Amino acid sequence: MKLINWPLLGAGAVLIMYSNTTLAHDPVFGIGPHVLFKNGMEAALELRREKTGEGKKSGLGAQVVYGITGNWAAGIDVPYATKEDATDNSSGLADLQAFTKYRFWREDSLGLQESAAVMFAVNANNADEKTNPPLGNGATDFITGLTYGYESIKWYRWASVRYLATGKNANNLKLGNKWRIDFVGGWRPVPPEYKKPDTVWLLELNGEITDKTEQNSIAQVNSGGTEWFVSPGIFWTIRNFAIKSGIQIPIASNLNGTQDESDYRFKAVFEWHL
Q1: pLDDT over 90 at 142, yes or no
Q2: Mean pLDDT across the stretch 194-203?
Q3: Contact 183/147 with Cβ under 8 angstroms?
Q4: Is residue 140 part of a domain?
Q5: Per-residue model confidence as pLDDT tens digits over 210-230
Q6: Which of 3, 61, 73, 111 supports an S-S bond with 35, CB 3.0-4.6 Å?
Q7: What gap in Å lies between CA 251 and CA 88, rounded to an integer?
Q8: CA distances from residue 32 to 1, 102, 151 in whole angstroms, order as listed
Q9: What is the DSSP string of 188-201?
Q10: How many domains does the chain have?
């Protein structure tokens, strides 16, 4: 007689019941197909810190997301940024971002959910122009993306690709368009239990392929190139509150001309599902 693994069955039921609230989250640096339930709300506070050569950047962002349907969500991100380098220190509002994500495929089985989604975002041209150097690029940018997620009781997998199309500013300067490619694995050491803390350890591979910056349609020699990062991270949840954090460590780069390579990038996000 075949015995039923009741603990596994119970954990699978918990994962499916709460996959859209407490257990389903995007990776730290990549994106996933996670969306909210209909009329759901998510508020988040995001901290960023990065260093490239002698330059440092910090960011604090407030984000609100609304579940339009069970498969479609939209929101806004209002960031405050700080730049520090050898000659200039600037702080102020950076470009506001409006975004949306639509999950077009989902398949559930015992203890497992697979899904895929498309996303679209607009970086508005509304950064603080009084700072030096400016905190935005003075143009409106567009981002499109595609993502796939595999979420089980113990293992997670995500893959995503995004394309950033930049605009020209008033000085006819156009930053390089950019591809972002992400592969992520996650491991939950302890099966989830409702109302108890849940921990997933993450490891990401993040790539950025950037075109050269153009001034008056002339490509700038010291711009563009490719960078790859390995990014260990964690997300921790308890009921409708979550914390996720990670650090990007550069492992390969092929930048054009003379450019400083990235030293590190840190990110932490505090989420509250309403």
Answers
A1: yes
A2: 93
A3: no
A4: yes
A5: 999 999 999 999 999 999 999
A6: 73
A7: 29
A8: 40, 11, 10
A9: -SS---TTS-EEEE
A10: 1
Flag whether 86 is in a domain.
Answer: no
Residue matched to tokens 């607009």: 122
How many whole angstroms separate alpha carbon 136 and alpha carbon 57? Answer: 13
Q: What is the pLDDT of residue 146?
A: 98
For residue 1, being part of any structural domain is answered with no
Which of 33-42, 80-89, 137-146, 183-192 is the least confident region?
Answer: 80-89
Domain presence at residue 69: yes
Number of C-beta neighbours around residue 251 at 10 A: 12
The three-class DSSP label of residue 17 is helix
Rounded Cα distance, 226 and 207, in Å: 7
> Residue 180 and residue 30: Cα distance in Å, rounded?
8
Q: 13 by DSSP, 3-state: which?
A: helix
Q: Is 221 helix (H, G, I), strand (E, B) or coil?
A: coil
- Both tokens of 228, joined, read 């790859």
Q: For position 47, which CATH number holds? A: 2.40.160.40
Closest CA to 235 of 17, 7, 34, 72: 34
Expressed as residue numbers, the domain containing 51 is 6-81+91-273
* pLDDT score recorded for residue 136: 75
Nearest to 192 by CA among 5, 6, 4, 7: 7
